[in-house]
Design goal:
By secondary structure, the chain is an alpha/beta fold. It contains 5 helices and 5 strands.
């Protein structure tokens, strides 16, 4: 977990437009109860693994349709290989593919085209587990 002032969110897709859609949909702070988000944009699978191994990422958003390595396969690998892996959200190509996110062990799935409200709701739910409770 990073500092209390920011949460690091990895956004993986080989498509820069998909990465930008995610970042624009979430903005700097999707909810007043959460710290600001800092984004780490990644276009290749080896860099995803490197970033996740660093221990500095609070949430990974992975494009299930990315080429040549899809986000669902990466999600499953991360869950198998990283002790106390941060939450993972997978972007699926269509709602009917959300069952694949279960196979990948992702904690959430959002289908494309991205609905900003659905994405924000899922991200807020996942990030709340990364923020210490305040009284």
């Amino acid at each position: 977990m990073t500092t209390a002032t920011t949460l690091k969110v990895l956004v993986y897709s080989d498509d820069v437009d998909t990465r930008q859609q995610v970042i624009l949909a979430l903005g700097k702070r999707p909810h007043a109860d959460l710290p600001e988000l800092e984004y780490v944009e990644v276009a290749t699978e080896p860099v995803v693994i490197q970033q996740m191994d660093s221990g500095q990422i609070d949430l990974a958003i992975l494009d299930g349709e990315a080429v040549p390595v899809g986000g669902m396969g990466i999600a499953r690998q991360l869950k198998d290989e990283i002790y106390q892996c941060p939450p993972v959200l997978v972007l699926t190509g269509r709602v009917q593919d959300n069952w694949l996110a279960t196979w990948s062990r992702a904690e959430a799935a959002v289908s494309q085209p991205i609905d900003p409200i659905e994405l924000a709701d899922a991200v807020i739910r996942l990030l709340r587990s990364r923020v210490p409770a305040t009284s």
